Amino acid sequence: MEPIPSRPSLPPGYGIEKATGAPGELLPWSQVAEWLVTARNYWVCTTRPDGRPHAKPVWGIWLESQFIFSTHPETVTARNLRVNPALVVHLESGDHVTIVEGRTKESRIVCCWGDSARSTKPNTTGR
User: Fold this and answer.
1) 59 exposed, middle or buried (CB, 10 Å; 0-12, 13-18, 19+)?
2) Minimal CA–CA distance to 36: which of 6, 85, 69?
3) Would you say residue 73 lies in a domain?
4) Which of 15, 58, 80, 107 makes an SS bond possible with 46, Cβ 3.0 to 4.6 Å?
5) Residue 120: predicted pLDDT
């Protein structure tokens, strides 16, 4: 499922009022998806219970239209997401501006290292 593209809401003078055509026409989702898939570093933004924002860089993957990253259950990020699952993810690049908004769900995965398998700490998946 492809997201619905939109233009940013900016005051007059930024040049966006001169844009023609449908949002996403000049920058197709396939290009944005490629940036997301090939990135390793992302920024995640959450909201603290008192309303203050929290941002941090993470390693993650974009897989099957989902952003997957891990965080320890006691980090500020995890505590924020337990209260408010809203999440903003963006690439570190200022040239490939991609901002994805969504909600998270907690999941557990099993990792295999050599001959042993173990359950990991909860992962957070943004969709």
Assistant:
1) exposed
2) 69
3) yes
4) 80
5) 45
Report the alpha-carbon distance of residue 12 to residue 114 in Å, rounded: 58
For residue 70, which of 23, 126, 127 has the smallest C-alpha distance?
126
Alpha-helical segments (H) within the chain = 29-38, 76-83
pLDDT reported for residue 82? 92
d(CA 127, CA 4): 13
| Amino acid present at 102 | G
Q: Which residue range is the domain that position 44 belongs to?
A: 28-126
Query: What averages of pLDDT result for each successive group of 10 residues across the chain (127 residues)?
Result: 73 76 75 93 96 96 90 92 94 88 75 47 49
In 3D, which of 64, 69, 75, 13 has the Cα closest to residue 40?
Answer: 69
What does the block give as tokens for 91?
Answer: 């690439």
Q: What are phi and psi of 76, to 5 degrees?
A: -55, -45
